[in-house]
Design brief:
With 262 residues, this protein is an all-alpha fold. 82% of the residues lie in helices and 0% in strands. The chain is built from twelve helices and no strands. The chain has helices at residues 2-29, 32-41, 43-52, 56-77, 82-103, 111-116, 124-153, 155-160, 165-183, 192-204, 210-235, 239-261. Helix 1 packs parallel to helix 7 (124-153), helix 1 (2-29) crosses helix 10 and helix 1 runs antiparallel to helix 11 (210-235). It starts with a helix and ends with a helix.
């Protein structure tokens, strides 16, 4: 079992690092809907890559970054109508992907893996990509931590203090896009937001310190992944679905515990 699970555990470790950082910023920015739009819209990049025979990672990354910048502009300049526009971009991105996949000759049996993920079958190319994105996240958080935090809690105050709010916000969404792309093969576009939302939500219930929240989120993400992998191996079920269900059970358990405590 251990030999079979070595690669999924390594993937889980890389995912957990990203969950700790990006998941926590998604939570305090309340940007799960934006992240979901990037995730689902990125299916357009997958379809384009398949149709033109391009690199899946490269094409989807470029497409996701484009969506992130577009959504950054929309959510910054048109807050009152942003939900509608974000929903449209979500649908258009997926539609582009579906149409290009329909136009691509031949049968494509692995399309479901992009939607729901398969952490047991992540190729080495994706693992190297995940390691690279984690390195970018680490460097970014070391350099821009206080700026990210400032725009997340009070964008107007950050603007008054001379921070380049628009550029920092756009870069944060680009990091979200990169994180989503690195998770496509392992978690899938449909389930990725749940995995990146649940651990930070739980961590926030037990600490008010943001650094601690990132660390706890990352640890929880890894623990959920390992437990989910164990159940997947034991009961011969989908690993990604098992991971999400484990996280969801803990999520509702914490909600119940906190509700009784209040």
């Amino acid at each position: 079992m251990f030999e079979l699970m070595q690669t999924p555990i390594l993937v889980s470790l890389f995912l957990s690092f990203a969950i700790g950082i990006i998941g926590s910023f998604m939570l305090i920015n309340r940007s799960q809907f934006i992240a979901a739009a990037i995730a689902h819209g990125s299916y357009g990049g997958i379809g384009i890559a398949l149709y033109f025979g391009l690199s899946l990672l490269f094409t989807t990354t470029i497409f996701a970054i484009f969506l992130a910048l577009l959504l950054a502009y929309i959510s910054y300049y048109d807050k009152y109508r942003s939900d509608t526009l974000i929903g449209v971009i979500w649908a258009v991105g997926m539609s582009i992907g579906i149409i290009f996949i329909d136009l691509t000759p031949g049968y494509h049996p692995n399309m479901m893996s992009f939607l729901f993920g398969d952490i047991l079958m992540v190729p080495m190319e994706d693992i190297y990509f995940m390691a690279s994105i984690d390195a970018i996240l680490l460097i970014s958080i070391l350099i821009l931590y206080h700026r990210f935090l400032a725009i997340s809690y009070d964008m107007n105050f950050a603007l008054l203090n001379g921070l380049r709010v628009k550029a920092i916000y756009a870069y944060l969404l680009v990091l979200m896009a990169l994180t989503i792309v690195m998770s496509i093969r392992s978690v899938g576009l449909i389930l990725v937001i749940a995995l990146f939302s649940i651990p930070p939500f739980i961590a926030e219930k037990f600490t008010a310190d943001f650094r601690a929240m990132m660390i706890i989120s990352g640890i929880l993400g890894f623990v959920f992944s390992v437990i989910g992998l164990y159940f997947s191996y034991t009961f011969d079920i989908s690993a990604t679905a098992a991971i999400i269900l484990v996280a969801a059970i803990v999520f509702f358990g914490v909600l119940l515990f906190k509700h009784k405590g209040d």
